[in-house]
Amino acid sequence: MDSKGGDITFYLTVGTFDLIKEFLNDEVAAKQLFLFDPSAEEMWGNKYAFFPLHKTEDGGHSFSITLKDQVDQEKRKEICSDLSNFLNILELIGRDEGGKHTAKKGEQIQLFSLSTIHLDEPRLGGGYLSFSVSPEAARFLEQQSGRTIPGVHEAMKAHHLGIFPKDKEVRPLEFLGGLVGTIRNHGTLDFKTLGNCACMGAMPREATEDEGSFIDAHNVDSSWQQLSLIVGLATTWKWVRDELGYK
Description:
single chain; 247 residues; alpha+beta; 6-stranded antiparallel sheet; 4-stranded antiparallel sheet; globular
């Protein structure tokens, strides 16, 4: 996952596209819940919120959620609804495939996992999301404790002003304390967006070498707040991958 200029890009590793197709074709319940097939030719999703998949250099796939599509509230709601369904599929596939493969030493693994829900807004917790951190990423983040995550404030601010350009004049002071990502004690991630204490985080605690971590949302009630935090998470995801030498 990555974010540039307010766009959010999701990357599917080699084989994930085929696993999704197999899941949707084989599971009757999946067909009832997730009424779409990922497509490389046309818009896709329950509400057709996603652009066609692109082949990546390593043989995987990617798709983007553009900033211009996030400006309209109804379109944002459709995006968040489709994203929740899509991430649910990835989680179900991950549970099924996780027991079939043991990671080898030095092998690149899934560093983070994102989960979201979307309820008709405005509703308390209607933009809830959570984020799981793998043991490898958690070990790296612990070494970075106490610092601001590079690029997160800039990415989240550009994303917010792309949706609400007038906020540059009416909410300038809020940009100083909001729209930020930091690493607290023991490598605990912490993100803040605009709103009534709309944030993601957890109480810092020491973890074992083979233990990851988990953060979730508080007072994230709308689609724009959810997408704002996803921009921060995506920027962090890309930074950690680059620092660990992942391609």
